[in-house]
What we know:
The protein is mostly helical and about 140 residues long. The chain contains five helices and no strands. The chain is elongated. The relative contact order is 0.20.
Amino acid sequence: MENKDTIHLLKECDAGSKMAVTSLDEVMESVQDEKLKELLKKSKDHHEKLGNEIHSMLIQFHSEEKDPNPMAKSMSWLKTNMKMTMDKSDATVADLLTDGCNMGIKSLYKYMNQYPNAESKVKNLCNNLIDIERELRKDLRSYL
Length: 144
């Protein structure tokens, strides 16, 4: 029998990984420090790889992928562009991405609590996504 919590959690993870990749792409060209640029590329690669795993699982469950909420995506784009217009520093990039990581972690925990009956392999994927966000947030500290 199909587990609806599993599919819902997978879809939220899919949207979250896409949102992260989009956010990283939005700020990448503004980054000056080569180490920071490499850090962001590495994180983007991790998000994309996990996103591919999530997408494969959605196909296994005969479910469609989920794009990020258009309102959240628009608000993120607006905030990013406003802040970057005022200050195109690496510190601003780190600040924006730290906020994004915090929001992502919070949302993923909310969805894990909302869909407690999701299969353990999907919960593990969600925890992996949380770990990627935590690691990026930690690595960004020195750029704030």
